[in-house]
Amino acid sequence: MTSTRITQLHRAARTTPARAQARRAAPDDAAEPRRRHRVGRPRGPWRIPLATRILPEDDTWLTALEQTGLGLRDGVTQAQRLWCKKLKVPVPTAHD
Fold first, then answer.
1. How does pLDDT run across 44-56, given as a tens digit for each residue?
2. Sequential DSSP letters for the chain
3. Is the pTM of this model over 0.70?
4. Is the separation of the CB atoms in 21 and 13 below 8 Å?
5. Which of 17, 75, 79, 83 could be joined to 65 by an S-S link, Cβ 3.0–4.6 Å?
């Protein structure tokens, strides 16, 4: 092997990403199917979509709620729970 070829191999080893080198080095029959990793926040609990229309004066309350750092979903859920607790609404059983 010539010194020029050895130099080329060294350069290729430095510039090629480690994953590409590992793919080339691994035998094809031993390769497992690759899973894509999910990027971002983990998925939260399943929620039922809810839409409602509110009056403009009530929207100012929601704007103030968002400025406290509490999210809209969390604020509405917390308010609903407190309201039901105050009215002594019986807790429903979970749906299967």
1. 888 888 888 989 9
2. --HHHHHHHHHHHHHS-HHHHHHHHS-GGGPPPPPPPPPSSPP------------HHHHHHHHHHHHTT--HHHHHHHHHHHHHHHTTPPPPPPP-
3. no
4. yes
5. 75
